[in-house]
Design brief:
Radius of gyration: 72 Å
Low-confidence stretches: 179-193
Mean pLDDT: 78
Number of strands: 3
CATH class of one domain: Alpha Beta
Number of helices: 4
């Protein structure tokens, strides 16, 4: 850069010298005033000889100045170093505070999310446990209701049986009393003897005639116990074995009820309680 500056200075010097050397001094012009009335020729102006051009001066050789050494930046003073250290320390502390704040916010967000997930899981477990408890309570109530229904049914059956026994005893007492007064005494043997095939067939045949059931399924079979008076009137129907079809069981019970009074034996007696199987294949 120093060399370039020196070369530019020399060039400017050459230009200035050249311009100054070629610049001539101004020539003095003299004018004469003539009277127009005098018709004389003006004198010829003297000829001025041009001055010879000066010879160009030799171009001086300019030595390039040696490059200046690069100066090292000045060493900062001790107060400047302390100030820079203080600024750097404050910057690091600020960054540390911001990082700690960001970490705290992140931790709080994670804890909040974890609490929300825990609450959601707890609510789900509570709902599942509540549903389970309600289901178990419903099962208990169902079993309790079934037991109560069974107990009520058994109680009703016992009451019906007691009523039938009482009615049967009263009827037997009446018949026995009549027999003591001169009756033939056939009623005294109404509960005795074996149930012969012909008597059972007659009872089932009459019940079959009153059976109304549209479907045909030869696998259906039900067993019923029938309690009757000596006159053949039915006073009790008890299901011993279900067929598995509520419709068929109801049809059998209705047919038994419609068949009262039932047929008697050849000797005019009846069985107080008769148990019979009602197979669908035999009821066609």
């Amino acid at each position: 850069m120093a060399l370039a500056a020196a070369m530019h200075a020399v060039l400017l010097l050459f230009l200035w010298v050249g311009v100054s050397w070629q610049n001539n001094e101004p020539t003095t012009v003299q004018a004469e005033i003539w009277d127009m009335k005098v018709q004389e020729a003006a004198p010829t102006p003297p000829q001025v000889k041009p001055e010879p051009e000066p010879e160009p001066e030799p171009t001086p050789v300019v030595k390039a100045a040696p490059p200046k050494p690069v100066e090292a930046p000045p060493t900062p003073k001790e107060p400047d170093i302390a100030l820079e250290r203080l600024k750097l320390k404050k910057k690091l502390e600020q960054e540390k505070l911001e990082a700690a704040k960001e970490a705290k916010l992140k931790k709080e967000a994670e804890e909040k999310q974890a609490k929300a997930e825990a609450k959601k899981l707890a609510d789900k477990k509570e709902a599942e446990q509540k549903l389970k408890d309600e289901k178990e309570q419903a099962e208990k109530d169902k079993k309790k209701a079934a037991l109560a229904e069974k107990a009520a049914k058994e109680k009703t059956e016992k009451a019906d049986k007691a009523a039938r026994d009482k009615a049967f005893a009263a009827e037997m007492s009446r018949i026995t009393g009549n027999a003591a007064k001169g009756s033939t005494g056939t009623a005294a043997t109404s509960t005795g003897g074996r149930v012969d095939g012909g008597y059972r067939a007659a009872v089932i045949s009459k019940i079959k005639g009153n059976l109304v059931y549209g479907a045909i399924d030869d696998t259906l079979s039900a067993t019923y116990s029938i309690t009757q008076l000596p006159t053949g009137e039915i006073i009790g129907i008890r299901k011993v074995k279900s067929s598995g079809s509520a419709a068929y069981d109801n049809a059998i019970e209705n047919a038994i009820a419609k068949s009262s009074p039932l047929p008697k034996k050849k000797d005019g007696t009846v069985e107080r309680e008769i148990t019979a199987d009602f197979n669908m294949k035999d009821m066609h």
